[in-house]
Amino acid sequence: MATVNTKTGQAVDRSILDSMLRRRLFYTPSFEIYGGVSGLYDYGPPGCSVVANIVDLWRKHFVLEEDMLEVDCTMLTPHEILKTSGHVEKFADWMCKDPKTGEIFRADHLVEEVLESRLKGDKEARGQKVAVDAEKEAKKKKKSKEAKAIKLDDAVVKEYEEVLAQIDNYGGPELEEIIAKYDIRNPTTDGNLLPPVAFNLMFQTAIGPSSNMPGYLRPETAQGQFLNFQKLLDFNNQSMPFASASIGKSFRNEISPRAGLLRVREFLMAEIEHYVDPEGGKKHSRFEEVKDVEMTLLNRNVQLAGSTQVEKMTIGKAVETGLVDNETLGYFLARIQIFLQKLGVDQNKVRFRQHMANEMAHYAADCWDAELLTSYGWIECVGCADRSAYDLTVHKNKTGAPLVVREPRAEPLKIEEWQIDLEKKKFGPRFKKDGKTVEAAVDALSQELREKLSLDLEQNGKIEIDVEGVGSGKVELEKDIINIEKRTRVENTREYTPNVIEPSFGIGRIFYAMIEHVYWSRAGDEARGVLSFPPLIAPTKVLLVPLSTHASFRPLSQRLMLKLRRMGVSNRVDDSSASIGKRYARNDELGTPFGITVDFQSVKDNTFTLRDRDSTKQVRASEDEILQAIKSMVDGDETWEDIRKRLPEFTGQDVE
Amino acid sequence: MATVNTKTGQAVDRSILDSMLRRRLFYTPSFEIYGGVSGLYDYGPPGCSVVANIVDLWRKHFVLEEDMLEVDCTMLTPHEILKTSGHVEKFADWMCKDPKTGEIFRADHLVEEVLESRLKGDKEARGQKVAVDAEKEAKKKKKSKEAKAIKLDDAVVKEYEEVLAQIDNYGGPELEEIIAKYDIRNPTTDGNLLPPVAFNLMFQTAIGPSSNMPGYLRPETAQGQFLNFQKLLDFNNQSMPFASASIGKSFRNEISPRAGLLRVREFLMAEIEHYVDPEGGKKHSRFEEVKDVEMTLLNRNVQLAGSTQVEKMTIGKAVETGLVDNETLGYFLARIQIFLQKLGVDQNKVRFRQHMANEMAHYAADCWDAELLTSYGWIECVGCADRSAYDLTVHKNKTGAPLVVREPRAEPLKIEEWQIDLEKKKFGPRFKKDGKTVEAAVDALSQELREKLSLDLEQNGKIEIDVEGVGSGKVELEKDIINIEKRTRVENTREYTPNVIEPSFGIGRIFYAMIEHVYWSRAGDEARGVLSFPPLIAPTKVLLVPLSTHASFRPLSQRLMLKLRRMGVSNRVDDSSASIGKRYARNDELGTPFGITVDFQSVKDNTFTLRDRDSTKQVRASEDEILQAIKSMVDGDETWEDIRKRLPEFTGQDVE
Lengths: 656, 656
Fold this sequence. Notes:
2 copies of one chain form a homodimer.
Chain A: H1 14-23, E1 27-29, E2 41-43, H2 45-64, E3 69-70, E4 76-78, H3 79-84, H4 87-90, E5 92-97, E6 104-106, H5 107-125, H6 134-143, H7 154-165, H8 172-181, E7 197-200, E8 204-206, E9 214-217, H9 222-227, H10 229-235, E10 242-251, E11 266-276, H11 287-290, E12 294-298, H12 300-304, E13 311-314, H13 315-320, H14 327-343, E14 350-354, E15 366-374, E16 377-388, H15 390-399, E17 405-422, H16 424-431, H17 435-443, H18 447-460, E18 462-466, E19 474-478, E20 482-496, E21 499-506, H19 507-518, E22 519-521, E23 529-531, E24 542-546, H20 554-566, E25 571-573, H21 580-590, E26 594-598, H22 600-605, E27 607-612, E28 618-622, H23 623-634, H24 640-646, E29 649-650
Parallel strand pairs in A: 3-10, 12-14, 24-25, 24-26
Antiparallel strand pairs in A: 1-2, 4-9, 5-6, 5-7, 8-9, 10-11, 11-21, 12-13, 14-15, 15-16, 16-21, 17-20, 18-19, 22-23, 26-27, 27-28, 28-29
Helix pairs in contact in A: 5-7
GO biological process, one term (chains A, B): mitochondrial glycyl-tRNA aminoacylation
Subunit structure (chains A, B): Homodimer.
EC number (chains A, B): 6.1.1.14
């Protein structure tokens, strides 16, 4: 667990940040008055607002920008669909049970915890400095045996590090082997554990009154989109490529969720399914626009070699060298990075990590995760998978629905092939009720066999073919009843199953990681937290602060409030009796970027001071100028630096 | 089933409308390629967009307008919470099973269906005209015995009509009685049914890997809001009244859903919980603003008398006369009506119906539904219930959490009461381990008893009290160990449990009913449907139609597209080869209010024609004028009539 610093160079103290976020009701454990349920959180007013702003930006950046077709599908999903998609069988984690205490552990997390703890003990024994996570430390002290300062062999250290670097690559058997090899036990009781068993992560329920239709809560929004593929293609006038998109809750029955908002059982996802022709190298018409975007990439082979060393290069170069498989995948990786930048994530805390082979979901052909660095380590916040034709194919095979694209060929395709004609007038009377079976057997003859049979027919005037279930299983056909000829068939239509590139966003994780990135505290006072949301993302854009509760102030703040609301700029009046410094401090914690102070001068000449959250600097100008400046910053047309240059500074009150 | 007409006086043909809505992908049955699941629907691109616009308007109209505290709570809800709230016991419908076929019927719907069918048969036998619902008719022919034209006694007709008028008022025993009395059977097989049994409508699941935490999908968003009451009150600086609000999916495992989007198993709700002091008549500070709003009201007593006769009156009058219980309830009823108007619902197809006593949810003290008239009859789209202090009280009692408001009293409250002092030094040694039990028994003594005991004590120097489980069950206390005195206690703080007024919106039902209200077809052509959404609600605001595929047109439509997008106005270019009439017809079905035609003149002088969907009239003006006119209409500042008056009409092409 590396120490992570804020923009201003302070170490992120998660316990202080967490308590601030809960106090300000960004989020709160669900059902807390009933003791809570791990992995379930509610969002309070500022959290709701930030999430709504992230979703809004997402919709503009992806859906509107590329005319994606947004759909909203149900969360309840019948068993059969998720059986076909492979989720019933494969959407599982490995868990180990302690037979004595009944405790259940997620196997990979247990291995991580124990090996990391041993490595830490080793460092201590070697007299090295160890980064301390105060919260984790406190928990450990309470519940598990003290991590012992025991020195390990250099070779063992290396082995542990290699195991940890590819922890996501292990399945059940590998985890079982590792647990046995390194004698990993229940960290609290030191008891032995049963071998890992698979636990399906979907919540099960029954649809309808008779309980005979089992179903699940969806684990992703994707399946609903795939099932509507044909209708969406129609809606798009058969035009390819195109994308569908969906924003909604999905569910994972996590084995033992920890890590706050980062591992929850119910979460908001935003997913894109971009359908692309698998032929022609999956080019993207707008790749040019992004090719110079600089990316931080961690490739699969580096990880398999036990390292986490990243490379920096443009996405253009990454696609050119084949590190990223194709333009469409590359286009979305770059667009994801631009989106994260707009949200305010710290560019130095973003990397794109390629999945290792065993780590990939059962449907994926390639996958890159956008990971954000937080005090919990590197966290997967966006996945970008190439699901190839997997899903459309399995659903097509199961239902017979034509989940395919049919398009006219520019050049008709000419195919030389052996064709068979049957003389129906004679064929029917001859075979009677067996006619269909015999005809099906004839149709099924391979090209190779047809060629051979045509020679037989020419030489002997008749042929013999196998027809199961008719007579002796052999049927003779004479020249006057069958004809086999090589002809040219012309295909004017091409039919193919599109491949799917799927950028998939975990909004809650992005929300939390982004908050860690914009969090810092005022110099010299750890308790004075600030959330430097970009204006676009901030829950409230403007705080209106009347300096006095005098009656003459109220009409001014009311007027500003209404004018801002009409401009679509969210704002709040704080006319409490708290000191102006306290009122601003409260709003620094809420991340409100701008403050307007209504003072005695305002009552006289209708000028106001405008305060910038991050610098605490102020300018003073007329009502219209102040409102216009705010609108301009909220729309992203100007920054505070621009405003400061063109409006006179104000240094009258200290409102840090 | 009354025939319902469109604005233009045509009868709504639901099968035509439905097929149009599905073809244009407003919605579609979920999992259709797997055969579908009744009661589950997906929303396609235009449906998603309309729903998003409804939600957006809702947030502005309610949440932002009154600074409500929006929260987003989990859908997964542990058993204990819904047990406490009463849903485990009471959130149920009555169902009847056919023991022979295994079919399951919702009891009240079955009674409705059979009695309505008999009434129809009676009308036919009397030679009266019967409104025909083509779709229903077709289904019935397929599956049930033909409704027979049998004349009923006048008295029986009256009985049936009275039963139907209060069908929502019956519980299981009443339904059982009616089914027996009127010999109601399986309409398909004529077989007898088992008596109604309660079926709980919540979807059940298990949270966590060990299956020992049963839970449900929430049936409403309200409980999550109530559980956070204390935190929300803190967030609101202890200030009352205030409201929380939530937008999200809820679930009802309907017995046998029919009626398309109107009865579904998963649905979007928007709910407000407005917390109000129960003392002082539940006044509302903004009631003045709405008191003259004219309402159409159907009161409880009228329904119990077997009628559905409405009354029109202002909400001010309704509150004054006590028909609507209080200002806060009245305020929200009026605000709901204004909201529905903004959406485009037909004012003549809205009524507010008061619930009958047995019909109300278990938590409600009073309830009014905003019902919208559709081809399915009057449909509850918004409920507005007074939940009194029910929920906060049950959760407070169960958990001990202080879900109350504490406020300083303007005047301290003085209470005269009998107080008891125990001489602890003697009391402890005397009772030893029984001390606590005895003390609790003393504390629990009523005021009456204390008064009597104080006399005993004075007279006898000792008293005797009952203490279960200590000694003989009687304990003697002497003057030197106990003292009873009348004193005055001063209470500076008032503590109370707020009452809750809950406006609760079914977004899917509003969506569907509103669409029926804005639907009509061009004169003389039933197949040419139009959806007259207000610009605010329309999925796409502007269609851009280049008259030719000539290369010189493309830069113009691209520029218009980008300019509109920058103005936040959603738009689509249709440069397909279809005729201009066809392209507009397609967009009439999608409800696109405005069309810009790019023609040869545009290429020359940068003027464009702007078409109004409803009138098909056009004006022609410069690019800037056209864009400004659109912006103005989308923002609701001007109407088409305003634009038509100030910009020159264009009659060049026929683009009806």
